[in-house]
Design a protein that fits this description.
heterodimer; A: mainly beta; Protocatechuate 3,4-Dioxygenase, subunit A; eight-stranded mixed β-sheet; 4 helices; globular; B: 3% helix
């Protein structure tokens, strides 16, 4: 059947998304559907923190971006009907964080390290970037620096030119408070993050 | 069982570009290198699932969910429509998140310093969920226009922000709904950043059928998401 309806165009989230989309993080009186905490102490898997900043074309840190992440659980299963295995726990796999509350304008997610999905892809987290000044969101992916072997054979990473692949690799830092993967997002410039036509 | 193998591409002829001459903030924020094609994997065919269990009792009524000691000021409206995919199939049980300015054109957001009054009885954020036929409905007041810093004497037309998930990561959409007959539409870089042929899809239609006598004016607004490329199969 031919397509008959045109897609509704995207528009920017603008500067005032916080009380609608990330209300609890910003202190507004509306229950949030999701935030920066995807996992707690009872969640199965390796507890990790994802953090990073978003940089504009001048290298300035963006203070009004919103980052969403979508990931599999520690066993590589998605909490969605299209994954017949289902999630192994109450792990929903979705997080959302605005860059306007942290003093350094970081996004911060406390989650578990996703397992490999099992189709040849390396463990990864799917990332959507929204902000004032973008009329249309971007899709990117976060891979893990300590998964060298799996990353080398990942079918998506292999489509990315060598010189740009590093933009998708979060750097593992083990500190006193746990494991942090640092993932900065550069909207433009030499280090521009790879964004996908997904 | 549903056997979905992919979704139709984002229609680049319908969506605004990343860098738009009129909307100045895009100059340093939109990516400039070519996007890299990604064939959908299970990571993209799945996506966040938020349905009826995500709703609070008053979430779909913005005239009530921020009320402190009375009703919000402004023109009460009801906005309703269907969420469909490109083939006209309903998208059931999907969350729509909503945020908007009050009737005076002021957001409750702390960084909005426009010299228009806050309304103690209006918050401006809410959400609703589509039913089995893809239908949704929410109550609110008509948002006011407000100035912004894009250029001299720039004003945003009346609009409501809408955020949808749809059935997968690929159907994610954040958009804005505008009102028919608004003279600011032809002056607004964000609206005009949309390809001309697709702009009217962002403008609601006044509907006497949706209008509730002695209560609220009705506006109809259908939303179309990317469609699955494989037809669902009954197992």
């Amino acid at each position: 059947m031919a397509d008959t309806l045109g897609q509704t165009p995207s528009q920017t989230v603008g500067p005032y998304f916080a009380y609608g989309l990330t209300p609890e993080q910003y202190g507004y009186p509306l229950k949030a559907i999701a935030g920066g905490r995807l996992a707690d102490d009872t969640s199965e898997g390796e507890r990790i923190r994802i953090e990073g900043q978003v940089f504009d074309g001048n290298g300035a840190v963006v203070a009004d971006a919103m980052i969403e992440i979508w990931q599999a659980d520690a066993q590589g299963r998605y909490a969605h009907p299209a994954d017949p295995r289902g999630s192994n726990s109450d792990f929903r796999g979705f997080g959302r964080f605005g860059t306007g509350t942290d003093p350094k304008n970081r996004f911060i997610f406390d989650t578990v390290k996703p397992g490999a999905v099992g189709d040849g892809q390396a463990p990864h987290i799917n990332v959507i970037v929204f902000m004032r000044g973008m009329l249309l969101h971007t899709f990117t992916r976060l891979y893990f620096s300590d998964e060298t072997e799996a990353n080398a054979s990942d079918p998506v990473l292999r489509t990315v030119p060598d010189s740009r692949r590093e933009t998708l690799i979060a750097r593992r830092q083990d500190g006193p408070t746990g494991t942090v993967y640092r993932f900065d997002i550069h909207m433009q410039g030499d280090a521009e993050t790879v964004f996908f036509d997904a | 069982m549903t056997e979905v193998t992919g979704y139709g591409p984002r229609d680049w002829g319908s969506h605004p570009p990343y860098v738009d001459q009129g909307y100045k903030s895009t100059a340093l924020r939109g990516p400039t290198k070519p996007l890299i094609p990604l064939k959908a994997t299970l990571s993209e065919l799945t996506g966040p699932v938020y349905g009826h269990d995500s709703l609070g009792a008053l979430d779909a009524d913005l005239t009530k969910n921020g009320a402190k000691n009375g009703e919000p000021l402004g023109e009460r409206i009801v906005v309703a429509g269907r969420v469909l995919d490109e083939r006209g199939r309903p998208v059931p049980n999907t969350l729509i998140e909503i945020w908007q300015a009050n009737a005076a054109g002021r957001y409750v957001h702390i960084i909005d310093q426009h010299a228009a009054p806050l309304d103690p009885n209006f918050f401006g954020g809410g959400r609703c969920v589509t039913d089995s036929e893809g239908c949704y409905r929410f109550y609110t007041v008509k948002p006011g226009a407000y100035p912004w810093g894009n250029h001299h004497n720039a004003w945003r037309p009346n609009h409501i922000h809408l955020s949808l998930f749809g059935p997968s990561y690929l159907t994610r959409l954040v958009t804005q709904m505008y009102f028919p007959g608004d003279p600011l539409l032809d002056l607004d870089p964000i609206f005009l950043g949309t390809p001309a042929k697709a702009r009217d899809r962002l403008v609601a239609k006044f509907s006497l059928d949706l209008t509730e006598p002695d209560f609220a004016l009705g506006y109809a607004f259908d939303i179309v998401l990317r469609g699955a490329t494989a037809t669902p199969v009954e197992a």
